[in-house]
Amino acid sequence: MVSALLLVFIVALAAGHGAAFDPNPLQDFCVADSTSKVRVNGVPCKDPATVTPDDFFFAGVDHPGGTASRRYGFTALPVQIPGLNTLGASHARVDVAPGAVFPPHYHPRASETAVVLDGTVYFGFVTSYPDNKLYAKVLRRGDVFAVPQGLVHFLYNNGTAPAALYATLSSQNPGLVLLGDALFGSGLADDLLAKTFLTDRETVDKIGLKFRS
């Protein structure tokens, strides 16, 4: 009986682990059809007869662009390649101004590997509770650093020149949770935050105003 229960547990655990990642593709490629109105867990495929080399191509990673964060001083340029649809990967160029940060955050559905294109950054991650161990290094051009899935990590440009990185994530939709924004910009009760950070409501309110402005 114990052996049977253990077997059921192992099978259930394995099934749950497999479901936590993007599903394996069932064909060579499934180029995203951005014109489709069909809603699925991903993007519908184009007719293979209409696929071209441009569906696997992206130009413009040689310079900054994309969404800018004036609060933190970084920009993020998604590398949108339709041919990566269903392949469990996404890419982005990230630029961080001198003295600026890509603040502590995590990707709930992806690990990350980043290569430094230019500049110098302090890059690291923190393991889960209760260890909360920091793994971090100062990276320079050509260096590569990896972050396990779901762990809090950060970038800090501690140099005097702009820094640029190219990041690869192991999910088509990795998700992004900025810890400061999630905690102080979401409407969580000040009492809860004060108890969480072992401080008083006045301090929490002062911090919160910076995220609500």
UniProtKB/TrEMBL annotation:
CDD domains: cupin_OxOx. Transmembrane segments: none annotated. InterPro entries: Cupin_1, Germin, RmlC-like_jellyroll, RmlC_Cupin_sf. Keywords: Apoplast, Disulfide bond, Manganese, Metal-binding, Secreted, Signal. Mn(2+) binds at residues 105, 107, 112, 153. GO terms for cellular component: apoplast; plasmodesma. Residues 1-20 form the signal peptide. The keyword Secreted applies. GO terms for molecular function: manganese ion binding. Oxalate binds at residues 107, 112. Residues 59-205 form the Cupin type-1 domain. Oligomer (believed to be a pentamer but probably hexamer). PANTHER family: GERMIN-LIKE PROTEIN SUBFAMILY 3 MEMBER 3 (PTHR31238). This is Germin-like protein. It comes from Miscanthus lutarioriparius.
